[in-house]
Structure formats: C-alpha cells, structure tokens
Write a structure and sequence with these properties.
This protein is about 70% helix and about 0% strand. It is mainly α. It starts with 11 loop residues before the first helix and ends with a helix.
C-alpha cells in the first residue's frame, strides 16, 4: 500500500488539467467537423446499419456506438447523418479517457504529475486525432482499458476493504469486458494484469473469490463476440491471428516501419521520454510490485508483441501498439 498524495481538487495543476481537457475537446470537435471520413470510418458507418452481435474484423462496440448515434440523430438531421454527429461519441469518450489518465496519475503521484500525463496524452498525434476523434475501435478500447486500470490501481495500491473492494473488482470485470467488446487488444491487457498479480506479492488477491468473479463478469460481457464467432466458424479469430504472420523470415523493413511508425504516432520526444521515465522510476521504486511496474506490465504485452511481428515476416501497423503506450504516459507524468 502506498501513501496517496495530499488531495487538493482546487490546486493550480488540477485547474490547468481542466483547461487542457476543454481545449483538447474543442480542438477535437474542430477536427471532427472539418475532416472527411477516412476509409475505416466509412466502413464502420456502412456496416453499422445492420445491428449484430459482432463483425468479421472487430468486436461490435464501435459499430454499436455509430448505430446508437444514428438512431438518436436521424430524426433531426435526416439520413445520412453527418459524420460530425457520428463522431461525437468518440470525441466525448476520449475526453473521459483523458480525465481517467489524469486521475490515475494524480492518485498515484499528485496533480502535477497528472497534469503532465494529461498533456502528453493530449498532444500525442495518435490519441489526439485517431483515437480521439475518429470512428474507429481504438476510442472505446482505450476508454474502457483506462477505466479498468484506474480501478485496479485503487485496489492494488490503496487497499480498500470489505464490500468496497469487492465492488471495485466487479466493476473492473465489467469495464474489462467492455474493452473486450471494443477490440481484441483487451486480452493483452488482461494478460499483463494477471501476470503482474501472479508474479508479485499482490498474488494474495488471487486467493479470494472477487478477482475470479470479475473475470467471469468480463467473459459474460464479451460473450456476444464469442457467440457470433461460434456461429461463423471463429472467423474473427482466424483472421486476426493470421494478420501478423508472413512466414518468410525476418522483415527488417517491416521492423523499421513498426518502430518509426510508433515514433510518429506517439511523437518521438514522448516515446523516448516515456521509456526513459519508466526505467528511471523502476530503479527509484526498487520493486517490481510498485505502480510503475504495474503500468509497465499493462503496457509491454501489446508494445513488444506487435513490434515483434515483423520478426515473423509479418507487417505490423503502428497503431496496434498504442494502447500499451497509453499506460506509460502516467509514468512520464511523474
């Protein structure tokens, strides 16, 4: 258990964070109004016209959001609903994600660290543009992963007791399940969190029923994806598992594109500084059971696995690693 920083909701850093949130929201609203939909967005808008439990390439959450936005707006805007209106849930979701990253960092290391984590998140090109304003699955994914991480930080490092702890575990199961309904990356987050619990003194939680009930809630929540795939020959899992395997030996150009793409999507100074900050904090904490190690455990599976795809001859898209980098930005804030 760590000692939380003294709370000060009216601090200068907190007021500045609110200002950053507002400015970031207005900027993303401007982008959503000005930019024409890309190919992925046009695809999402098209396929969402037929509601179903899941889809060939992705779980259903992003498509459900589009369908809900269309249903609410069509009486006022006519059909087709403008792209700006369909983008609104994604823009607003990233504002909540940004606050969760600020709040997670503030809880661990104070409002000043939270402010810097928020600034880094807001300015990173991928989060600002794609995950923050486009109709793509990454927006719902990082929202629910950030919520799950925030809840787990509270459980692991501030040790609520009794009913409060059990409720938090159940809520974490729900938010993790919602992340699984957004994108398959949620499985790597779950692997990182479970590995951290198993490999550290925090494993005592696993001797209690609450984490396992939370896991069951996550599985039930994501069951629409399982049901749809069972009815369609597990096509999504076959498709996704085959995307990264070229089978032609190491692709050095692909590896270069994976690394340079991450530098571009996150911004070189942010990526390099986040790595340096994580190494520095791990040395300072002198423990693999502390909050920096926990955040690194959430981050590294997606970063390492997808960066290594070209080593199998595949070609990794650089946005695959971005949900992992999100959890190193609080460390950079500190």
């Amino acid at each position: 258990m760590i000692r939380p920083p003294a709370p000060d909701r009216r601090s200068t850093a907190t007021r500045a964070a609110v200002a950053v949130l507002v400015v970031g929201l207005l900027a993303r609203l401007g982008l959503a109004a000005l930019l024409d939909p890309g190919v992925d967005e046009a695809y999402a808008v098209a396929v969402s016209r037929q509601l179903q439990l899941s889809w060939f390439d992705h779980p259903p959450m992003a498509f459900w959001w589009v369908a809900a936005a269309r249903a609410l707006a069509v009486a006022h805007t006519g059909d087709p609903v403008p792209a700006f209106v369909l983008r609104l849930p994604f823009v607003l979701a990233f504002t909540v994600t940004s606050w969760l990253i600020f709040d997670l960092t503030r809880r661990l290391w104070g409002a000043r660290a939270g402010l810097w984590a928020l600034v880094a998140t807001t300015l990173a090109p991928f989060f600002f543009v794609s995950a923050g304003s486009w109709i793509v699955p990454d927006g719902p994914l990082i929202l629910f992963l950030a919520a799950t991480a925030r809840i787990l930080v509270e459980i692991l490092f501030f040790r609520p007791e009794g009913l409060a702890e059990r409720r938090l575990w159940l809520l974490a199961g729900l938010t993790l399940g919602l992340a699984g309904l957004s994108k398959y990356h949620a499985a790597l987050f779950a692997v990182g969190a479970f590995t951290f619990l198993l490999a550290t003194p925090h494993r005592f939680h696993l001797a209690r029923p609450a984490p396992w009930i939370a896991a069951a809630i996550a599985l039930v929540t994501v069951s629409p994806v399982v049901i749809w795939n069972a009815e369609h020959g597990w096509v999504s899992f076959v498709f996704q598992s085959g995307r990264g395997g070229g089978g032609k030996g190491i692709s050095w150009p692909g590896l270069g594109r994976a690394v340079l793409g991450q530098l571009a999507y996150l911004a070189p100074w942010t990526l390099i500084a986040a790595v340096a900050a994580t190494v520095s904090r791990l040395k300072a904490e002198k423990s693999l059971a502390g909050p920096t190690a926990f955040l690194a455990a959430l981050a590294l599976p997606s970063i390492l696995i997808f960066t290594a795809v070209p080593l199998r001859g595949g070609d990794a898209l650089p946005h695959w690693q971005m949900p992992g980098w999100l959890f190193l930005l609080p460390v950079l804030g500190k």
